[in-house]
């Protein structure tokens, strides 16, 4: 058993989450970002990779009026514990729970800051085993998990066949192949091996498009 996993993407028309230089705020508009906060509020936990945490220095909290008391547990995949003690995530750990998933022994600096550091099994690539991590989260009673990126994390969940739904906000801009992809390599050699999803709905969201999918 594992939590129900939703992958949330906010990209350009050509599937990019940032420019070549890493600029990403903001690709989608205000209405799409508001819906993103509602998605956070409807999940037990929200997860990002340490690359996103270092690049964007996010809070990963719900900041939508009326939903401030529905804060998900925040999780960072951080195999080598590169998360900075001065980051917004760590500095707010005593107010809003923060879990760092790693393959190392807990960093004393993170623990002193109020971060819960969990050592999990390493996968073949030496990084956090998603299967083991999801088992741990389900054992804690977490039923739903929102994955917000980045591209490598999105790809790892897809490669592990661990994405149940996709919430995709697509902005009417083009960033080109040099932009950073919303989904990293999937190692798909044949179309028959591609991960397939069923479209549930498509709706305008301000100037953006909101597409919703579920796994087949």
* Strand order, largest beta sheet: 6-5-4-3-7-1-8-11-10
- Succession of helices and strands: EEHEHEHEHEHEHEEEE
Report the mean per-residue pLDDT as an integer: 94
Gap from first CA to last CA: 18 Å
The percent range for helix content is 10-25%
The number of distinct helices, counting runs of at least 4 residues, comes to 6
Short description:
By secondary structure, this protein is an alpha/beta fold. Helix content is 22%, strand content 28%. The strands form two sheets. Strands 6-5-4-3-7-1-8-11-10 form a nine-stranded mixed β-sheet, with helices on both faces. It has a two-stranded antiparallel ribbon with strand order 2-9.
Helix/strand layout:
Elements: E1 4-11, E2 16-18, H1 30-41, E3 45-49, H2 50-56, E4 73-77, H3 88-91, E5 98-102, H4 108-112, E6 116-119, H5 130-139, E7 144-149, H6 151-159, E8 165-170, E9 180-181, E10 197-205, E11 208-215
Parallel strand pairs: 1-7, 1-8, 3-4, 3-7, 4-5, 5-6
Antiparallel strand pairs: 2-9, 8-11, 10-11
What labels describe this entry?
6 helices, 9-stranded mixed β-sheet, about 220 residues, two-stranded antiparallel sheet, alpha/beta
Polypeptide structure, described:
This protein has helices spanning 30-41, 50-56, 88-91, 108-112, 130-139, 151-159; strands at 4-11, 16-18, 45-49, 73-77, 98-102, 116-119, 144-149, 165-170, 180-181, 197-205, 208-215. The chain has 216 residues and is of the alpha/beta class. Strand 10 (197-205) and strand 11 form a beta hairpin. It is globular.
């Amino acid at each position: 058993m594992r939590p129900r996993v939703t992958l949330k993407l906010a990209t350009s028309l050509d599937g990019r989450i940032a420019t070549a230089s890493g600029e990403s705020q903001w690709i989608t508009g205000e209405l799409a970002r508001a819906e993103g906060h509602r998605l956070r509020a409807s999940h037990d936990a929200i997860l990002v990779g340490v690359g996103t945490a270092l690049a964007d220095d996010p809070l990963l909290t719900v900041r939508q009026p009326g939903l401030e008391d529905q804060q998900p547990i925040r999780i960072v995949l951080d195999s080598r514990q590169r998360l900075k003690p001065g980051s917004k995530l760590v500095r707010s750990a005593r107010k809003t729970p923060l879990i760092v998933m790693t393959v190392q022994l807990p960093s004393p600096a993170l623990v002193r800051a109020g971060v819960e550091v969990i050592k999990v099994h390493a996968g073949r690539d030496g990084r956090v085993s998603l299967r083991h991590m999801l088992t741990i989260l389900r054992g804690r009673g977490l039923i739903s998990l929102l994955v917000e990126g980045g591209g490598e994390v999105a790809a790892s969940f897809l490669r592990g066949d661990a994405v149940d739904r996709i919430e995709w906000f697509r902005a009417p801009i083009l960033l080109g192949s040099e932009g950073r992809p919303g989904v990293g390599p999937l190692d798909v050699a044949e179309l028959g091996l591609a991960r397939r999803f069923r479209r549930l709905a498509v709706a305008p969201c301000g100037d953006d498009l909101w597409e919703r999918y579920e796994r087949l």
